[in-house]
Amino acid sequence: MDLGISGLRIVITAGAGGIGLEIARAFLKEGARVELCDVDEAALAALPQNAPGAHGVACDVSDRAAVERFMGDALDRLGGLDVLVNNAGIAGPTGRVDQISPEDWDRTLAVDITGHFNVTRLAVPALKHSQNASIIGLSSAAGRFGFPLRSPYAAAKWGVIGFIKSLAMELGEFGIRANAILPGSVDGERIRSVFENKARERNLSLEEVQAMALSATSLKRLIPPQHLANVAVFLASPLGSSISGQAIAVDGDMQMLV
Description:
- The chain is α/β, with parallel strands linked by helices and 258 residues long.
- It has ten helices and seven strands.
- It has two domains: 202 residues, Rossmann fold; 36 residues, no CATH class.
- It has a seven-stranded parallel beta sheet, with helices on both faces.
């Protein structure tokens, strides 16, 4: 199926690895042009092999000066912007709220929600000139459930949904649509690290924690990151042109977080 996005101009944060890399690959496969940033220098160095055609630079989305440099260069290289994918995020600390340091709390929110603002405010003027403008924010299943031992992460991911819904209302008159994708337990190193941290906190095995997490889903399996990329590409295409203000779960029908 031709999604009609050949030549579309895309910016992706944290796009050199994990979910972001899969999203970049999916857009490139459809003929889009991709500019991305990441904090992982090794992943950026591997881009020519992992995502041929993508251009990536180092940038921490919590650093406003770095974001301004990245976005200025990206918009110049692309000659405008059609799609912004705010994917950057960190897992944050694991522990009860009284065990979490203020520094860990601040760092998690600085990346996971304020980072979305830092990039979006610079993208909107360019998006207003696009004929197919879209903002996609990566939230999480933690953005619709409570998440014990992960309160900073959950707070930020709830914030992403509020941000996206507000953007949809503010920017609809300019033809800019905004949607959130809510991953569940996505296969990869990051979810393994989360499960390992929870296993230590609860004196359980990694396998027990993973089984507990998957027992709360209908499909009882981890989500391939490619499935999130498929949704992102559809939402950004003309086929998704009537979808805005939505929080779309891609989580195997998760009923709770444990």
